[in-house]
Write a structure and sequence with these properties.
InterPro entries: HTH_MarR-typ, MarR/SlyA-like, WH-like_DNA-bd_sf, WH_DNA-bd_sf. This protein has 146 residues and is mainly alpha-helical. Helix content is 58%, strand content 4%.
């Protein structure tokens, strides 16, 4: 695919969708689904007080029910566990297990990170601003057209 100047919004949207589909399909690796990879990454990088299923749901903009199922699956697979120290009267704090950390070492997202690391600082900043803008302005499915 060649790089073109002045791409139309439709051409940009098409390319973004193609990249999105490629990334999504790569997320079916090591007996995990893309949503499970995202949850595992979240718990590996979040502050301890934010390592709850509810905070993950808030971060992803999803309902608690589906996120709770994802978390239960990761616990069942031995990739997440209840943290030893738990605050009183609060949601259960979770942590990534050693098995989860080992799996993150072969995270399929690492290829994308390597590709992005090869971009210039300016290109990464532009991409970051553009993606942030899309995340803020694109309607979620629940708020979409009816």
């Amino acid at each position: 695919m060649s790089i073109e100047k002045g791409l139309s919004p439709a051409a940009l949207a098409e390319r973004l969708e193609l990249v999105s589909r490629m990334l999504h399909s790569r997320g079916f690796a090591h007996d995990l689904f893309p949503s499970q990879w995202m949850a595992l990454r979240y718990f590996a990088g979040a502050r301890t007080d934010l390592c709850t299923a509810s905070e993950l749901a808030r971060f992803q903009g999803l309902a608690n029910g589906s996120v709770s199922r994802t978390v239960r699956t990761l616990v069942h697979k031995g990739l997440l566990a209840k943290a030893a120290a738990q605050p009183r009267g609060r949601a259960e704090i979770l942590e990534v297990t050693p098995a989860g950390r080992s799996l993150l070492a072969v995270d399929p997202q690492r290829d994308l990170e390597a590709l992005l690391a090869g971009l210039s600082d300016s290109d990464r900043e532009t991409l970051g601003r553009s993606l942030d803008l899309m995340l803020r302005r694109l309607p979620t499915p629940a708020a979409g057209r009816g």
